[in-house]
Automatic annotation (TrEMBL):
Coiled coil: none annotated. SUPFAM superfamilies: Fic-like. Residues 6-124 form the Fido domain. Gene3D superfamilies: Fic/DOC protein, Fido domain. NCBIfam families: DOC_P1 (TIGR01550). One of its GO terms (molecular function) is kinase activity. InterPro entries: Doc, Fido, Fido-like_dom_sf, Type_II_TA_Toxin. This is Fido domain-containing protein.
Amino acid sequence: MKTNYVPLEDVLLIHEMIIQETGGKEGVRDFTLFHSATARPQASFAGEDLYKTLFEKAAALTHSLLLNHPFNDANKRTALATCERFLNINSYEIITTQKEKVKLTLAIESKELNLTNISAWLKKHSQKLK
């Protein structure tokens, strides 16, 4: 099955919309970190994807956007919203409370969760779109 990725322009738009809705300083702090974070789910070696499953790819995207801090502000909010968009364009949605989503981002930020844990959390809290 082909994986759909969130275009860079969409990630920037997601960030802009979050800042407009919730406040904070708009803009990319470091374009190199931004490009690195958004490209990570597509990483491969010797023709093989480094992140095999959709949820591993979603975890890599979320982890990198959150911990690379490519934006001036709203890195956690943008990482989560971009993850949700990534899953949506691949026919999945996260089903949980906003409180649980916030707990996830804080656990990633504090490095309590690694990629395997994040991937497992996303898989557990997602369902296929009908």
